[in-house]
């Protein structure tokens, strides 16, 4: 009975799932969506359906897969060790890129908070400083990171919830309607142009099934929490970003690095706007802190698995992979300099699209394995058919997200993916030679 008391309820797990997705994904959204106009609400509908399909399929994978390693373990069912490597490699890469975008969000809000005009090079330098600060603070271990993260996340949750509820008192229907399609996109172009930024907001949904051991009756509650958390996050995203579009003119949203701060300044006063900016900088940095630690963990488990160089697997007495963190942050620093753009929003855009492309690859590998995982575990045929159908919808959405990201992110994403196949050649002997030797011994 004591064990049951320590378990999370389905409501608690649903809230954790939604908060994990929200993190820092939302704070630059209104500016990015203003590039399309309020018709971007249609992208939210498409992404909401696609994300729910992904969340449900991942929940089923988490319950029935017997292999460790998250998406890498799922992919192995259908694609073998090379697929498992590619899932780990592309997921690790997407997190490395995504964290630079999170750091840029923090720099953008901080620059508006302190009324500092930053040149493109200065944005790059400040981003690198922010990344290194997060890395150094992580040297203390997971407990410090966890405590800071659970506190700073409220810096984004409170303003977003206030905007979603109280913000309606300042909402102008005529202003919202005027911003519907200010750039005269065609129907499908308008939806496509904001798909990658809306999917960016949901990245992290794959971790929703990670807490299955901590919840009572996981077979029933994990899928409910995954879907409930995704729906909850979707509603908060859609309401808050669309309320802002009815408060702040589209042209003003388009030219700000701190959209939520601008909205609160319009609603209340510049002082309140500054407070919200400060809260969001804090929240963004807290999220960056947690994700920098997570990346090092992903690289460490991949090194232990034999996929990545052994140096990523080395840990200190506190279990912190410091060497891995340092190498990752050096790579991020170089990437931050390589992607310097005329504006902060443009650099954010480049990184988000590249992060989405590389993150969708392990999604596709995992979705292809859903059918095999369930068949191998003797799941009833009816359940297999329903879940496979949902995973096909998730795969179609993922492919559409790749297409919508644009040619440049697809081009660079393809190059780094193809490089992954080459890199696997250097470690495949650890797995494929053993397998071939076993086959020879059996046939002998």
Automatic annotation (TrEMBL):
<dbReference type="InterPro" id="IPR050367">
    <property type="entry name" value="APC_superfamily"/>
</dbReference>
<feature type="transmembrane region" description="Helical">
    <location>
        <begin position="151"/>
        <end position="171"/>
    </location>
</feature>
<feature type="transmembrane region" description="Helical">
    <location>
        <begin position="9"/>
        <end position="29"/>
    </location>
</feature>
<keyword id="KW-0029">Amino-acid transport</keyword>
<keyword id="KW-1133">Transmembrane helix</keyword>
<keyword id="KW-0813">Transport</keyword>
<keyword id="KW-1003">Cell membrane</keyword>
<feature type="transmembrane region" description="Helical">
    <location>
        <begin position="409"/>
        <end position="427"/>
    </location>
</feature>
<feature type="transmembrane region" description="Helical">
    <location>
        <begin position="386"/>
        <end position="403"/>
    </location>
</feature>
<feature type="transmembrane region" description="Helical">
    <location>
        <begin position="222"/>
        <end position="248"/>
    </location>
</feature>
<dbReference type="InterPro" id="IPR027566">
    <property type="entry name" value="Symport/antiport_PotE"/>
</dbReference>
<dbReference type="GO" id="GO:0005886">
    <property type="term" value="C:plasma membrane"/>
</dbReference>
<feature type="transmembrane region" description="Helical">
    <location>
        <begin position="191"/>
        <end position="210"/>
    </location>
</feature>
<feature type="transmembrane region" description="Helical">
    <location>
        <begin position="118"/>
        <end position="139"/>
    </location>
</feature>
<dbReference type="InterPro" id="IPR004754">
    <property type="entry name" value="Amino_acid_antiprt"/>
</dbReference>
<feature type="transmembrane region" description="Helical">
    <location>
        <begin position="275"/>
        <end position="299"/>
    </location>
</feature>
<dbReference type="Pfam" id="PF13520">
    <property type="entry name" value="AA_permease_2"/>
</dbReference>
<protein>
    <recommendedName>
        <fullName>Putrescine transporter</fullName>
    </recommendedName>
</protein>
<comment type="similarity">
    <text>Belongs to the amino acid-polyamine-organocation (APC) superfamily. Basic amino acid/polyamine antiporter (APA) (TC 2.A.3.2) family.</text>
</comment>
<feature type="transmembrane region" description="Helical">
    <location>
        <begin position="352"/>
        <end position="374"/>
    </location>
</feature>
<keyword id="KW-0472">Membrane</keyword>
<feature type="transmembrane region" description="Helical">
    <location>
        <begin position="41"/>
        <end position="59"/>
    </location>
</feature>
<dbReference type="GO" id="GO:0015496">
    <property type="term" value="F:putrescine:ornithine antiporter activity"/>
</dbReference>
<feature type="transmembrane region" description="Helical">
    <location>
        <begin position="91"/>
        <end position="112"/>
    </location>
</feature>
<keyword id="KW-0812">Transmembrane</keyword>
<dbReference type="InterPro" id="IPR002293">
    <property type="entry name" value="AA/rel_permease1"/>
</dbReference>
<feature type="transmembrane region" description="Helical">
    <location>
        <begin position="320"/>
        <end position="340"/>
    </location>
</feature>
